Amino acid sequence: YGLVIAAESGDAPYSGESLHVGDVIYEVNQAPAVSIRAVTSTLAALKSGDPVVLEIERGGTLMYVTLELD
């Protein structure tokens, strides 16, 4: 499972490290990113200022990226 970032948006609703085309999101706040619906549901439960921790793969390396919702 995982969601591939296919395009970048100039008006992303978060601050922090940016996601890049080709990044693969595996988890959002420890919830598996099995579908866009699952990720949207996880994010909808958060409010502005809440931290979001993503487990991603970038260039073959697994890493964690922390964002903050605007």
Helix-strand blueprint:
Elements: E1 3-4, E2 14-16, E3 24-28, E4 31-32, H1 36-44, E5 51-58, E6 61-69
Antiparallel strand pairs: 1-3, 2-6, 3-4, 3-5, 5-6
Cα-based radius of gyration, to the nearest Å: 11 Å
Query: What's the number of helices?
Result: 1
User: What's the number of extended β-strand segments?
Assistant: 6
The biggest sheet amounts to:
6 strands, antiparallel
Strand content: 35-45%
- Helix content range: 10-25%
State the low-pLDDT regions, or none. none
Mean pLDDT across every amino acid position: 90
Q: Structural class of the secondary structure composition?
A: mainly beta
Account of the 3D structure:
With 70 residues, this protein is mainly beta. It has 1 helix and 6 strands; from the N terminus they run E-E-E-E-H-E-E. It has one helix at 36-44; strands at 3-4, 14-16, 24-28, 31-32, 51-58, 61-69. Strands 1, 2, 3, 4, 5 and 6 form a 6-stranded antiparallel β-sheet that branches. A hairpin with a 2-residue loop joins strand 3 and strand 4. The protein is globular, with a radius of gyration of 11 Å. The protein starts with a strand and ends with a strand.
Task: Briefly summarize what is shown.
It contains 1 helix and 6 strands, in the order E-E-E-E-H-E-E. With 70 residues, it is mostly beta strands. The protein is globular, with a radius of gyration of 11 Å.
